[in-house]
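Milestone M4 deliverable, item 7.
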Amino acid sequence: MFIGEYLHTLDPKNRISLPAKFRKDLSRAVVLTRGLDRCLFVYPKKAWAKEAESRALHAGGTAAARGLARLFLAGAMEAEVDGAGRVLVPTHLKSFAGLKSKTVIAGVANRVEIWDEAAWKTYTASIERDADAFAEALGNPV
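Output delivered:
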């Protein structure tokens, strides 16, 4: 399970170093794709296979299901984690997430997310402000 948030820098060659704590569970091959809220999702290949299968099952359904399937599947790219623990972020994914130099890598259960640092700060401030209302709406107070 991936948890925690880490500050990292995207280098001039569009490589980002993955946190050492995540590398073992990610292994040498990962899948990067567009995520929700303008971040990137990074999956270990096994977890990606399950996610892709789930999306594919619904790809012919409602317009919303087709749209999400296209968002996640069409932009996905396999990437190798190099010996230094870095992964190359393709240009189209870097643009989608608005990644600049400073980034946040967050562990979110079965996946890792890559965020532009400023976007992460804005997003988390919003979530922190509304957390009580979200818990109430879900009927799941912490």
